[in-house]
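Dear colleagues,

As part of the handover before I leave the project, I'm documenting each prediction I ran so the next person doesn't have to rerun anything. This entry is a single chain, and its sequence is reproduced below.
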Amino acid sequence: RPRSHTVTTTSSSFTANLSASSSTLAYDREFLRTLPGLLMVTEIVLGLLVWTLIAGTEYFLYPAFGWVMFVAVFYWVLTVFFLIIYMTMTYTRIPQVPWTTVGLCFNGSAFILYLIAAIVDASSVTKELDSHNYNSWAASSFFAFMVTSCYAGNTYFSFISWRSRTLQ
């Protein structure tokens, strides 16, 4: 004898809220027109140059360039991550996170570690090490100092934003 199958479905308020919030993903085009947004894009482009110029050489033979690679790739990935957060306005959906403090800590640490990496990079570039890689290493140290100045600028803007938040 045939059985009848009855399927009952229920929806929770969690899934209803999730589907409603995920369908309204915001996009902030104006962020790229601000000075912090332009600096962030510049950090991404110049940071990419730093680590690709080093990655195209035999950097693994010299521990100093390993440190520069770590800093460059680590902050490049995090900067891309933060750019996506700011462009999609995800920070408005997570109000529990003190975004001004997070931005200040991120940019401040990026500035300090990139400054150290740029100095290490520049001091490690010598013609005696490997003349074949000299131009790539010299260019990477130049761009590392450029990225450092961009992070310094964003640290300043983050500090201004953080300071205005703490005074309120």
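Residues 27-97 form one domain. The helical segments are 13-22, 35-55, 63-87, 99-124, 134-167.

All the best with the project,
I.
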